[in-house]
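Retry 2 of 3 after timeout on previous attempt. Resubmitting structure tokens to design endpoint.
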């Protein structure tokens, strides 16, 4: 059994904003203290939609890494690396593509959505069609157990699981596997061996998922087993195959509740975003000019917070007392829109202060970021090479 591990990445296609912070980075900061985490810049993925402007990718890569560090990602806790610096991602993508049905790629919900939403770009490319498979390779190559995603990305994780399952079924054949697995069972000791066989039977013949989980927990506690024997017994539980690629699980994260300044999704392309490291004067100007409830034409007109984009910022940034003051003052016209916006301005600036402080050392000395990434690339590549050694062997490509 492989250790629990979290893998996630972002495409470097522009400046990071507060929507990214509340939608992903805050979760990353929390997870890095719970499990080993690998966070990567998905520069190859950026090429699927920005292949005609690669200069943007290079600039955005380093800016994004500074943003991650500014948001609180700690390189002593998490591994930060760049996808294209670990070429094994591309090799696994290629090998997985040999056995992945075309229909699996075409049915991914976001494929059609992006084709429609990015109609100004020519996305009739193999790279764009195949990006969910590259995404699968990004995760499977680290044998990650968890991938933090929102609800809209769950189909991608399900496809990753299907790809891993199909690969293990096709290639997880070890010569004399069953005999070796039975020898490994004996190493558990008579009592545990008996329980293992009973649980295996319950799962395989009656489909009892609880039996599978109980058996896995028992194997996790079996200190006497070697790594290869443990791996064999996990495979033997579910059939007579060796587990080469791990099926990852979606770790659902709370969707960002922070919209753009106009109430739509926050996006640089919409011109409604506040950058992660925006200066105070710009933050103040942007929030003060936010649209409000159209019913409040004059200061004396009462309004409805539910119809005002500023209220959605209060939902994220304000405490209950402030929200109560805003709701009461808006509905009674007791406060004006500028007064309503000030607590939001203050809260955003306060949130960004430590980000500016953390970022400054990397802005003063960019070699610090490059050193962090160089170390991360090395760590990630070592893990990726271990997986690819097993993949090549399983596929009969280990000859020299």
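Retry 2 succeeded. Sequence:
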């Amino acid at each position: 059994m492989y250790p629990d591990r979290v893998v996630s990445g972002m495409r470097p296609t522009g400046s990071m904003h507060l929507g990214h912070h509340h939608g992903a980075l805050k979760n990353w900061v929390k997870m890095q203290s719970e499990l080993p985490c690998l966070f990567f810049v998905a520069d190859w993925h950026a090429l699927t939609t920005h292949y005609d402007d690669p200069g943007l990718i290079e600039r955005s890569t380093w800016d994004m890494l500074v943003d991650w560090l500014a948001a609180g990602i700690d390189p002593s806790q998490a591994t930060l690396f760049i996808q294209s610096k670990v070429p094994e991602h591309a090799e696994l993508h290629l090998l997985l593509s040999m056995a992945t049905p075309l229909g699996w790629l075409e049915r991914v919900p976001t494929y059609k959505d992006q084709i429609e939403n990015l109609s100004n770009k020519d996305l009739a490319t193999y790279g764009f069609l195949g990006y969910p498979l590259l995404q699968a390779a990004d995760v499977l190559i680290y044998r990650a157990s968890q991938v933090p995603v929102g609800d809209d990305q769950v189909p991608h994780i399900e496809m990753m699981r299907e790809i891993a399952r199909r690969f293990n079924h096709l290639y997880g054949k070890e010569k004399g596997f069953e005999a070796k697995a039975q020898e490994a069972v004996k190493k558990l000791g008579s009592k545990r061996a008996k329980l293992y066989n009973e649980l295996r039977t319950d799962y395989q013949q009656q489909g009892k998922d609880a039996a599978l989980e109980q058996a896995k927990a028992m194997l996790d506690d079996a200190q006497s087993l070697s790594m290869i024997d443990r791996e064999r017994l996990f495979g033997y539980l579910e059939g007579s195959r060796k587990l080469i690629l791990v099926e990852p699980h979606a770790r659902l994260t709370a969707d960002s509740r922070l919209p753009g300044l106009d109430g739509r999704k926050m996006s640089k392309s919409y011109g409604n975003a506040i950058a992660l490291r925006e200066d105070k004067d710009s933050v103040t100007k942007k929030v003060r000019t936010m649209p409000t409830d159209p019913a409040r034409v004059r200061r004396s007109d009462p309004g409805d917070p539910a119809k005002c984009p500023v209220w959605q910022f209060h939902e994220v940034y304000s405490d209950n007392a402030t929200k109560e003051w805003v709701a009461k003052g808006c509905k009674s016209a007791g406060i004006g829109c500028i007064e309503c916006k000030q607590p939001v301005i203050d809260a955003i600036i306060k949130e960004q202060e430590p980000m500016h402080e953390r970022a400054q050392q990397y802005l003063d000395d960019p070699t610090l970021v490059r050193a962090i990434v160089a170390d991360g690339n090395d760590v990630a590549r070592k893990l990726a090479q271990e997986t690819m050694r097993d993949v090549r062997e399983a596929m009969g490509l280990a000859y020299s």
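Attempt log closed. The longest helix spans residues 337-364.
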